[in-house]
Design goal:
The complex is a heterotrimer of chains A (337), B (547) and C (218).
Chain A lengths: L15 H32 L16 H29 L7 E8 L2 E6 L4 E3 L1 E5 L3 E8 L4 E5 L4 E5 L5 E6 L4 E7 L12 E6 L1 H9 L11 H11 L24 E3 L5 E3 L2 H9 L22 H13 L16 H8 L3
Parallel strand pairs in A: 1-5, 4-10
Antiparallel strand pairs in A: 1-2, 2-3, 5-8, 6-7, 6-9, 9-10, 11-12
Chain B lengths: L2 E2 L21 H5 L4 H29 L10 H20 L2 H15 L7 H23 L13 H5 L4 H28 L12 H33 L12 H33 L8 H14 L15 H29 L8 H24 L1 H7 L3 H31 L5 H28 L13 H31 L31 E2 L17
Antiparallel strand pairs in B: 1-2
Helix pairs in contact in B: 2-3, 2-4, 2-5, 2-16, 3-5, 4-7, 4-8, 4-14, 5-7, 7-8, 8-9, 8-10, 9-11, 9-12, 9-14, 10-11, 11-12, 12-14, 12-15, 14-15, 15-16
Chain C lengths: L1 E2 L3 E2 L10 H36 L1 H8 L4 H27 L2 H31 L15 H37 L9 H26 L4
Antiparallel strand pairs in C: 1-2
Helix pairs in contact in C: 1-2, 1-5, 1-6, 2-5, 3-4, 3-6, 4-5, 5-6
Classes of the chains: A alpha+beta (337), B mainly alpha (547), C mainly alpha (218).
Chain lengths: 337, 547, 218
Amino acid sequence: MIGRFSLFPEQASTVAGQIDAIYFFLVAVSAVFSLAIAAAIVVFAVRFRRSKERQVIPTWEGLLSLELTWTIIPFLITLVMFFWGARVFITLRTPPENALQVYVVGKQWMWKVQHVEGKREINELHVPVGRPVKLVMTSEDVIHSFFVPAFRVKQDAVPGRYTSLWFEASKAGEYHLFCAEYCGGQHSRMIGRVIAMEPAEFQRWLSGSTGTTGNPSSMVSAGQQLFEQLGCATCHQENSGARGPNLAGLFNKQVALLDGRSVVADEAYLRESILNPQAAVVAGYQPIMPTFKGLVSEEGLLQLITYIKSLQAADAAPDAAPAVKTHATLQGSEEQG
Amino acid sequence: MTTTETTVSDAHGASGVNYLNADYGVRSWLFTKDHKRIGLLYLASITIFFALGGLAALMIRLDLLTPAGDLVGDETYNKLFTMHGVVMIFFFLVPSIPAVIGNFMLPLMIGARDLAFPRLNLASWYIFNLGGAFALWSLLSGGVDTGWTFYTPYSTMSSNTNVISAAFGAFISGFASILTGVNFIATIHRMRAPGMTWGRMPLFVWAMYATSIIFVLGTPVIAITLLLMILERAFHIGIFDPALGGDPILFQHLFWFYSHPAVYIMILPSMGVVSEIITCFSRNRIFGYSFIAASSIAIALLGFLVWGHHMFVSGQSVNAGLIFSFLSMVVAIPSAVKVFNWTATLYRGSVWLQAPMLYALGFIGLFTIGGLTGLFLATLATDVHLHDTYFVVAHFHYIMVGGALMGYLGAIHFWWPKITGRLYPEGLAKIAAVIVFLGFNLTFFPQFVLGYLGMPRRYHVYPDEFQILNVLSTAGASILGVGYLLPLLYLVWSMRYGPKAADNHWGAVGLEWQTTSPPPTNNFEQTPVVTGEPYDYRDPVEVKDVA
Amino acid sequence: MHDAGAGVVHGHAHQFDDAEQQYEASSLGMWLFLAQEVLFFGAVFATYAYYSFLHTDAFEAASNHLSLTLGTINTVVLIASSLTMVFAVHQAQHGGKRAQIGWLLATMLLGTVFLGIKAYEYTHKFHEGLVPGALFTYSGPDAPQHQLFMCLYFVMTGLHALHMIIGIGILATLCVLAQRGWFRAGYYTPVEMTGLYWHFVDLVWIFLFPLLYLIGRH
């Protein structure tokens, strides 16, 4: 809990206990070896201390069996550390399919959080207990790092790309959020709170108006507004003669490019296509899309991407997409995320 | 080792002609080609830098007494920890043992008259100071606040401090390292005394050899990295700028490709020192000579393969993380082997707890803790939580201060009689060693706890509940400071008022002890010939002038 | 030491036992220095390789900004200069002063021609608005990646040119020493070591040229 003195952080996520288990193992191994060495030194220094008489010292050159023993056994112990740590690490880097997606943009010196449903937060992140949450993050300027000690998770937010981390809160409460990559002047003030709430309470918060900063419209509708304002619909239409590829049902599909490569249309691809359209032109189309760099913010990009993700294949033209999707449908489109 | 055909002056070197009194005047020092004088020139330079870096540390710890950071402002704090890192790493730790003790002792230990390239040696000292001048200029012109790691894009596009001067200073000082490395390798290969085979070299020489490999192969990469960063900042050309298709993470790869091996530059020499001290003060042959020698080379080479363990959460792929984590485990093993071998050397020896030995034994204990805590960071899952927290700060200070610096102090004390022909006050030295050990642990052990609690690094202000541990740490730092001040005072005092030392005060074996204290300019009246094994303490030498 | 008839005669520096040890040490020292240079240039080459992999098409297109003709001429010039350097080393060991100085000067001349052509290329880039930074005016497709390519072009060839300039300076020093009669069969180490350095700098160009000038040519 924030503000309470302790010597060990509380466990507030499903993975915290797993990481602490490895930690305790490492502490035990370290304690055993450090104490053994210290004890050996003290015992030898006392038992074999120098005395006044000249002594003939028996030569003691080495023992291959001893060398091999104390090489192989420590190596095996480190292998245990490696495999155990790797397994939990892979868990940390594999978000569950049904994770609730939240978008985070770091900038000097604040965290801007956008929920898909429209709630926006500054330096705070409300999450439900018992439900995996995946953060998709980027930075507007320099490298930051999103760190929640109580959850034992951390990931850098890097400008120019998307990174992600996931967690499942296991205990309601308020937990420290720190920026963990030095970012200049007020790095140590780029802190906040992660507020884990029981699911029902979280739903109430999500649909209520307390605690929001900024307009309550969903990211999808905000993205749709941008899509229209920036004129994307002029080229990106459903009909076959359109100047730009149809975006409906595009997200996470394989795309064949003009230069012969084939890529997956994930968030990074969509972002790059908006900012640097010539980099990955779709096969069968001309490289005529203008760049929108400088015309749309990082948050705007996330809104556009969320909108594009929401576009269903074949059954809906872009301008018929509903302004506000139900929670269930949003979940459906997030499943691909 | 047994030697023949060596004529050693019986008169105490201090009253005869030696390298200190062979020539007088500032010019004779500033234009010297004598490796021993150059070692002392380096000693003067790095002591000044250590004082600067230590002052920054003092300010940092004082400021961290309160959660609100009342002593200095945000910007000043950021500049303090940057200067602390830049000065301590590039201008103290990297040169410390190689440029002071290595320069002084290497030719003596192998029975040579000087290093292979004496003029290059002097040039390296001037280059080093030129780099230091640029770093100092950045300090005087308002400071630099990027952290010693200079991460982009902050360093190239956001910081408004004098980054270029500081980075350029580090860049230039790298060439001094390269020249030292070239000099040492050529010397070790070509200038050993007759009979000194590779298997008869002192382990300190093996350590210098391994360190020099890293100097030569690693330093040019940081040179290019800093150069590219400086060009981007100066001319706004975006090599690491994502808006131009550049990659800020590439900077991290290039930076850590040198900076990880750099930590082995900082620890291998101390390990060499510990090998020398442990045998002398146990009157025993070193246990596992070939394993220690091989471990030094293994650490130097493996150290180039693990840089990605600094980047597990920076956006690196999972597979890269797996590879780097595994290799980081592997590189830990040779260090563990050394610790076991040193401890075994005490067994059935004749342990003499003089100040150098206290530093060496302290090294073994503290380095063990530091090395083991490195495993917490090499393990992927725990590193996610611990990266960029005070746990990392504690880990590397255990190695750099508890390890490297204690080794440096041990070396200074061990070879002080040889270098100056004088004895330091042994009682006071023992007290100082204990103060350093206790102060150090109080300073840095609480930081392990702080780190797991989640207190990030480089934080000027922090949540209230972290205060108690920070106060403990600062208390320890003040004790540690006293522990460092004492040697500064009594060592300087001893240069004038200390009793004269015998040629071989400790009764050690090793070629450097077979000549006068201080040595003559040409080191040996006649080139020694080596016929015996290293660390042959079968015939203990009687010790004169024991305190 | 001076030998009345033959100019300067060398013993060896005091730290060495004999001339052979001195030669061995110098040779090892130069090879170690070159090893360091491999890592030095290697770091920029690695940076280039990474970006070239990320932006293959753009880099291939950007390569066409460079003059293949001038690059080829420079390659021939440098290889020729390595040849003259080989002769210079040979003459240092076997020949008289005039031959030594002659071949050293030839190498310097070729090196200077190389630098002259490079200077011309750089100025041309400036006029074309291809110098990265504030003066970059190219606005075709993938302009940012073209600028990145040009950054790497200037850094890589610039560092190479700096090494050439230093090399030419060393060669000039060797000419002076040759004039004083320093080099003969028993002692020509400085020339041989400079030869190693010169060949290495040439070798760096042999890698630079295809990477910068030849990718993207069809």
